[in-house]
Amino acid sequence: MRSSALPLRCHISLSQAIRAAMFCLPLGTIAAAPVALAQTASQHAVRSYEIPAGPLSSALSRFAGEAGVMLSVDGSLIGDRQSQGLRGQYGVEDGFDTLLRGSGLQAVRDARGAYSLASTSAAEQAQAVELKPMVVEGFALGNALGAMEGYNATHSSVATKTSMPLLETSQSVSVVTRQQMDDQGAQTVSQAMRYTPGVMTNPYGATHRYDYLAIRGFNDGSVDNIFLDGLKMMGDSGTYSSMQIDPYFLERIDVLKGPSSVLYGRSLPGGLAALTSKKPTQEQYRQVQATVGNNDQRGVGFDFSGPLDEEGRVGYRLIGLADQADTQFDHVEEKRYALAPTLSIEFSPDTSLTLQAYLQKDPESGYHGGLPAEGTLYRRNGRYLADDFFEGEPGAEKFERTQQMLGYQFQHRFNDVWSMRQNFRYLDSTVESEQVYSAGWGSGASELARAYTGADEAIHSWIIDNMLQAEFYTGAAQHTVVTGLDYQRRKAKVDYTAGTASSLDAFDPVYGGTVTLNPAWSSSSTRRLEQTGLYLQDLMEIDRWRVSLGLRQDWVEISDEDEIYGGKTEADPTQFTGRAGLLYLFDNGLAPYLSYSESFNPNSFADADGKPLAPTEGKQWELGLKYQPVGTDDLYTASLFHIEQENLASKLPQEDFYRPIGAVRSQGLELEARMQLTDSLRLLGSYTYTDIEYSKTTFSTLFGQENLDNRGNTPPQSAKHMASLWVDYRVLGGSLDGLNSGAGVRYVGEGWADAENTVRVPSYTLFDASVGYDLGRVGLHGVDVRLNANNLTDERYVASCASLGYCYMGEERNVTATVSYEF
C-alpha cells in the first residue's frame, strides 16, 4: 500500500521553498557587500537620451533621473545657466560632461557613487559647499520617489515600478508633492488629493477616519486603492480595519488612473494612490512644528534626519506626531499619536537597505455616519438638520485603532544590466468600535430611529514583492524588463454585536438613551486571504517610440469561517491580467499615447446567503496627449478613458454583507496642468468629465426592493463634472521677501442620491486660501509661519449620498495656523 505522505511533504516543501526564497533572496547579496565595499562601482550602461535644450538645472535633474544616479547641487553654482540638451547614447560620465560643457562646472563622483557639482577652478573646488539633494539615490528608481521642491515632479515609478518620466508614461499619472501638501494644509491623505483630476476625495463627507478615494467614478466603500512604499496597505475592506497614514510622514503621493493589476495584483479599476514615506536625508535635518486650529485642534510634530557616520553610509530619520481635536459634530473627538523611525544602510554603491517602522495609536477617530436625505438634501417638516448634529450616543461612541507596521526596502545592482529589489512589510492592527447610528425617520415629525453596532477586530498580515530588473539592447530597441513575484497573506478575526437604540429628537436632541443588544445579530468570524502573483513587464524605447507590455498571473485563496454557528465559505480564484501602451515623443514636447489595462479584485466576503461573490474585473482603454514645453518641468495632460467593470458588489452601511449589483461603465475626459509660470508664480488646474452608468441589470438597494432594472442610471457618489484651480505666489526680493500666498477653488457637480436616480445631490463650490511667511527675513532664522483656511466661505453642502437613507455632510470651514522651526 503506497503512502500519500511523501507527495504531501513534497508539496509543503515546495511551498515553503518559494516563500523562503522570497526572504532569502537579498541575503546572498548582503553577504557579498563587504567585498563590494573594496571595489570601484562600475559605470552605468550606455543608454539613449532625448533631453531638450533649456535651463541647466532642469536638464541635470532629468538626466540624473533617467540615468538612475543621485545628484546634489548648490543652486548658486548653476544660477540661470542654460544647457544645449543631450541627444544620443551616453554613459553617465560622458552625459554629465556634455551637459556641463562650457559652464565651468564638472560632475564629481564620491566613494558612494553619488554625484555633486563643483567648479573647474581648483581654488573654488577647495571651498566647502553645502549641498542640497535634488533627487533621491537609487539606481533602479532614480528620482521617481524622492524629495523635490515645488509642485512639478518629472518622474514617477507608480505606473512601471521603475523610474519613468511622466511625459513618457502611457497612462495618466498625477503627483502631489510635499510642498503642495504643506501649502494647501492637507490634514489627511484624501485632502492632499483635492486638486487632482479624476478623484473625488470626500465621498463620505467630513469624516477623517479613512482616506476614501473615488477615482474615475468608482467607489466601493473601501480604501483598497491605497498603497504605501510600493506595497498594498493590507487592511480588510470588509471590516472596519482599514489603515490610515498621517500625511506628515509622507514625501509624495503618486496617483495612477485606471486599472493596475498587472503590477499590483488585486486593485480597483478606477486607479490607486501610491504613498511614499519620508526617507533619511544625506545631511542633518531637524524640524519641529506646532499647529492650532478651530474645533480646538492642537498638535505638535518633529522630524529629525541625517547621517550617523562620517562617510554617510548609514542614515536615520525619526518622525513623530501628537494631534488632538474636536470635530464639527457634537460629542466626537479625534486623537492621534504616531512615530516612524527609519534606518538606511548603504553597504556599497550597489547595495542598500532601508528599515522602516510605523506605529500609530488613534484613541478617538472622529465621526463616521450618515443621515437621511430628508433633513440634509431637503427639509423635513420645513427644517434642515444642524450641520453639527450627532445622531449617536456619547456613551456608546468609540473607535480606537492601533496599527503597527515593520518593513524594509532592499536593492542591489549586480552589473550594468541586472538589478533587484525586495520590499517587505508586516502589519498588526486592532480596532475596537461601537456606534449608535441613524436607521431612518420614525413615526414622529422629528423622531429619528436608531440602531447599534459594535466591533472588535484584529488583523495580522504581511506582504512581500521581489523585483528583478534588466536593462539591455536588442538592435535599435532599448529594453527595461521588470519581472516580479509577490506574495501577501492576511488573517482577520472579527467579532460583531448589534442591536437597537432608543429614538432621538433630531431637532432637539437629548442624549442618554438606551441600547438593546440582539444576540441573534451577533457574529464572530475569521477571514483569511492569500495571494501569489507573477508578473512580467517590458518597457521599450525605439527611437521616439515608447512601448510598454505587461502580463500577470494571480492565484488567490480566500475563506470566511463562522466561529459561532460553524460553516466556512471558501474560494480560490485565479486571474490573468494584461497591459499594453504605446507613446510617441515629439521634439517639441508633445507625447500622444494609447493604452489598455486590466484589473481584478477578489471578494473576500460573502452575500446574504453566505456565498462568496465573484471577483470584480475591470478593463480600460485610454487615449491621451501629454505636453511638456521644452526646457521646463511644466506638464499638461489630456486623457480620454473608457472603463468597464464586471461583477460589481456593494453594501449598505447598516449591513454586514455585500450585494452583487451587476456591471458599470465609466468614460470621460481628464485635463490637468501643472505650471511654474515664473520664479514666483505656480498654478495647478484640472477638469474632469465622468459619464458613469450601470451597464447591466442590477437591483436596487433602496428599502430592500429587488429586481429593479437600473441600466443606464448613474451610481450614487459620483459627479459628472469636477474642476479645480490653485494659484501660489511667492514674493522674491523687496520689503515683502519671504511672503507667500495661495488661493484655490474646487467645484463638484451634481450627482444622484440613489441608484434609481430619483433625487439629485446639488453641486457645490469651495474656496481655499493660505498665507505664509519666512521669519528668517526678520532675523528668526529657520522659523516659518503658515495660515490655511479650507472651505473659506463655510459653505453648507452634502458631499454625497450612498442611498436616500445615508447622506454625508461636507466639511465646514477649517482654519489652522502652523509654526515650524528648522535648525
UniProtKB/TrEMBL annotation:
Predominant subcellular localization, coarse grouping: membrane
Domain of life: Bacteria
NCBIfam families hit by this protein: TonB-siderophor
Placement of sequence motif TonB C-terminal box: 806-823
SUPFAM superfamilies associated with the record: Porins
Signal peptide residues on this chain, from the entry's feature table: 1-38
The entry's keywords: Cell outer membrane, Ion transport, Iron, Iron transport, Membrane, Nickel, Nickel transport, Receptor, Signal, TonB box, Transmembrane, Transmembrane beta strand, Transport, Zinc, Zinc transport
Keyword Manganese: no
Protein's cellular compartments: Cell outer membrane
A GO MF term: signaling receptor activity
Name assigned to this protein: Metal-pseudopaline receptor CntO
Domain Secretin/TonB short N-terminal: 69-120
Cellular component GO terms held in the UniProt record: cell outer membrane
Keyword Transmembrane: yes
Bilayer topology: Multi-pass membrane protein
Lineage: Bacteria, Pseudomonadati, Pseudomonadota, Gammaproteobacteria, Pseudomonadales
GO biological process: nickel cation transport; siderophore transport; zinc ion transport
